[in-house]
Each structure stands twice: as C-alpha cells, then as structure tokens.
Design brief:
Blueprint (H helix, E strand, L loop, with lengths): L4 E9 L9 E10 L2 E9 L8 H7 L3 H4 L5 H12 L3 E4 L2 H14 L8 E3 H8 L8 H8 L9 H18 L2 H12 L10 H6 L5 E6 L5 E7 L2 H7 L8 H9 L2 E6 L3 H15 L14 E4 L10 E4 L11 E5 L2 H15 L16 H5 L12 H12 L3 E2 L8 E6 L6 E7 L2 E8 L17 H12 L5 E5 L2
Length: 465
C-alpha cells in the first residue's frame, strides 16, 4: 500500500538537461494512504524559447507560456504542496533534478524521499522487458489522454499505482516501496545534494578527504549507483569502512562509455596514487617472460620491459611487477604441467632436474621426452599469458559514443599502445582528462584487448585503408 503522504508528479521542460533547461509545465496529484486527495497543474514561463522539436512533442508553444507565471512566482505555493510528501514520478531522477535546481535558484532547499515508478514496475513485473510509461499503459490497458502533457502523464502514473494496489498484496507493495525509497546512510562529510547531482552514466569517480588527499578512484557504467554502493552501511571490508570514515569530497568525470572510463581510471590510479587502490598502480619497471622456440630465446627468459627497443609481441608472456613474481609463475606452471625445471632455465647442472627425481617432470632433461613435445606443452601452459601480435596493419581509431549525452571519445591505438585521444562533448573541459601514455602499458593492453575482441554496440573500430 501507498501508506503515508505521496505526491505524484510530472513535468514538461525545454529540454533534457536539468542544469540548463527549464520547466514549462507541472502536474501533480496528492495522495494519502493510497487514496486520492487533490490535484493541481500550471504552465510555467521558462524565460527562454522552447525548441521546435520540444514543442512538437509536448504541444506547449512559446505563445502558451508567454503570460504564465515564472517558477519563482509559484515556488512558495508549490513547496507547500510538496513538503513532507514522498515524490513519485516515472524516472523520478529527471523530475527531481529539475525541481531541485529551480527551487535552489529561489533559495529553497528541496530534498524529499523519492519513488521511481520505473523501478517499481521492474520489481513487480520482472518478467517484462519494457517499463516506459507508454509500455505500461499499453500492457495494463490503462486509459490515458494525449501523452507528454504534465497532468495527463501524472494521471497515468496514478492509474498505474491504483492498478497495482488491486493486483498485488498490500505487504508486497509496501515492501517494494520501502526498498526503493530507502536512502543510503551517508558519511558525515557528504551531503545528499552531492549524491543527487552525480549522473547515472559511465565514468570515473574520486573520493577525497578533508585535506584534498585522494582516497580512492573508481569507475562504473553508472557512476551514481556505484558511489551509493560504497555507502550501503554494510561495510563488508575494511577499505569501505575507512573510506566512509575519511571521505569529505566526491568528484567525477563522465565518459562516453566503458572503454573511456576504464582507461581514465587506470591513468588516474597511476598518477594520483590513491590510498585505497592497490591494482593499476604505477610500476618503476615490469618484467615479462620472453620465449620463442622457433627463434631465440629457446629457453624462457625473464626480461625487463624497459630493455626492449621494440616489444616482441607474440613472443612475450605476462607482465609482472617483479622478477620474483615472474619466476614464481614459471615454477607454478612447471608443477601444474609436469614441465622440466632445467628446460625452463630455472635449474642448471648435469643430470635430471629435481622435478624428474620427484616423478613430476616427464624427462626431457634425460631424453625421455622430445624437446619438441616439451616445447608444445610449454606453449600450451604459457598461452593464457601471451601478449599477442597487434591484429591490425598500423593504427586504428576506437570511437565510443554515448547514446544518452552524445559525448564522443576517439582513441588512436597502435601496437596495443594508446597514442592519441580526442573528446567531443560536454566533458571536453573536465578537470580530469585522459592523456595517452604513448608507451606500452599492461593495464591498457588488457582493456584494449577485451574491447577490440568484443566491441560494444556504441564502440566503432576504424582501421587504416
């Protein structure tokens, strides 16, 4: 049941960006304990021209709002209608963002509990794929007037609420609502308004303490959801607990998609050295296992990456922080795959290797196994660590475009190396910009290999002709 005070609401606006666009119409219905109380609607003069495409969608023209009140003029009466009530809307973040910004410009703080009927529909109808308002109206056979006017859409949302109250047990509806309106327990230094301003899009986020020291850098396909997850209250590990105790500031940067977010996260962890990031950190030098049985070296060599004038892709295996780590990998492979420690260059001297004496080496060291057969088995064992040859003839361009914001990022790549970058869109002047290293980096390689082998629908690979 919808127990308590709720206000069902829909807005029409001059565009989709709360920071720059304005409200043109408000429609709301007040509900108490699941029962209709009253409704109210008004057109709003946005003090700017309504784009033609928006006029076509909503039917609201510049002439219609010319003599209507401004938001500031109705702000006092509107806040009285909203105060103390749970805000209900279809994609409530959109409507709330506009209301919050408009009220803020009037010197009024508005931060209600919020219920999204898109998410409520997903909870109650998990078998359905589409949960847009048009889909719900069609699926449930709800009566609805002309869409994309504020009061018409508000009534459709209220009709949906009445429908589910008849179809589901009150306890299920109440538990679903409570689950959706539950807010995270925020750290002392973080205000809810900061959380509300974080976008639900791909990108990176940065946690800082009161001295501007970087605590943690993360990335996500949905920055806002990922940030909130850090404050779930469970603190299942010491890292999240310490972050919550020290965090005082959150910064973020949008990306066109997952590729841009991963590359920027990797760069920032290396350059900012966050206290609670362990992976992706900058290394003074890295080591690899170099082996080429058809040429040289015929025995695996543990080699610093910095020693190569040109990295022999296709003949190196793994990137390791230390020589010791690479050596341990070879020893582990020898144990798992019954390989010869002498043939791997780990042991020297005459006679059988120590593993053969223990019965684990198949005996290439005493001519019981052919060198070719041992090489084939070693190749299979090392294969998962292989840094392969570059699969293209020269440079490629990876173009990633956001389906929502229109942000475009262009990455020029050659030999698994990020060599150039261009961004087009709203984060072109962001505080944190991706800056290609122009040298081979193992973390970048792992990111590129994944996205080149399985590109997302929003990633285009452009090769040289």
């Amino acid at each position: 049941m919808f127990l308590g005070d709720f206000v069902f609401l829909d807005l029409e606006t001059t565009g989709a960006t709360a920071g720059t666009d304005r409200i043109t119409e408000i429609g709301l219905i007040s509900v108490k304990d699941g029962k209709y109380e009253s409704e109210w609607q008004t057109l709003i003069n946005p003090h700017r021209s309504i784009p033609n495409n928006i006029q076509l969608i909503t039917g609201i023209s510049n002439q219609m709002v010319e003599n209507e009140p401004t938001f500031e003029e109705i702000s006092d009466s509107l806040i009285k209608r909203l105060e103390g009530k749970i805000l209900v809307a279809h994609n409530v973040r959109f409507d709330y963002a506009f209301l919050r910004n408009e009220f803020k410009s009037c010197g009024i703080r508005y931060a209600p509990k919020r219920l999204c009927t898109v998410k409520l529909s997903r909870l109650l109808y998990p078998e359905e794929r589409k949960h847009g308002l048009d889909s719900i109206i069609k699926r449930l056979k709800l009566k609805c007037g002309a869409r994309h006017r504020a009061m018409t859409d508000t009534r459709a949302i209220w009709d949906f609420a009445q429908y589910i109250q008849k179809q589901f047990e009150p306890s299920l509806i109440s538990s679903s609502i409570n689950r959706l309106i539950k807010e995270p327990s925020l750290p002392n230094g973080i205000d809810q308004e900061i959380i509300d301003s974080i976008p639900s899009c791909p990108g990176i986020y940065i946690f800082k303490d009161g001295n501007d020291c970087v605590l943690y850098v993360g990335k996500s396909k949905n920055i806002r959801s990922r940030v909130i997850s850090h404050f779930s209250g469970e603190h299942s590990n010491k890292k999240d607990l310490k972050i919550n105790q020290n965090i005082n500031k959150i910064e973020w940067c949008e990306s066109a998609g997952e590729l841009g977010a991963l590359l920027l996260e990797s760069q920032l962890v290396k350059t900012l050295s966050p206290i609670f990031n362990r992976q992706l950190r900058q290394r003074e030098d890295s080591f690899t296992i170099q082996w080429n049985p058809t040429d040289q070296p015929k025995t695996p060599l543990i080699t610093p990456l910095s020693s190569f004038e040109e990295i022999p892709f296709g003949a190196i295996y793994g990137i390791f922080s230390t020589h010791k780590q690479a050596l341990k990998t070879l020893k582990d492979l020898a144990k798992i795959h019954n390989l010869c420690l002498k043939n791997l260059g780990i042991e020297s001297g005459e006679g059988p290797c120590f593993s053969h004496q223990l019965g684990t080496c198949w005996g290439v060291c005493v001519a019981k196994e052919s060198t070719m057969n041992h090489a084939m088995r070693l190749s299979m064992a090392l294969n998962k660590y292989l840094i392969p040859n570059w699969p293209f003839k020269g440079e490629i361009l990876l173009i990633e475009q956001s389906k929502d914001s229109g942000l475009v990022e262009k990455h020029k790549i050659n030999n698994w190396t990020h060599i150039d970058y261009e961004v087009i869109g709203q984060n072109a002047v962001a505080d944190y910009r991706l800056s290609p290293s122009k040298i081979f980096d193992h973390d970048t390689f792992q990111i590129l290999r994944k996205h080149i082998s399985k590109p997302t629908p929003h990633l285009t690979i452009v090769t040289q002709k």
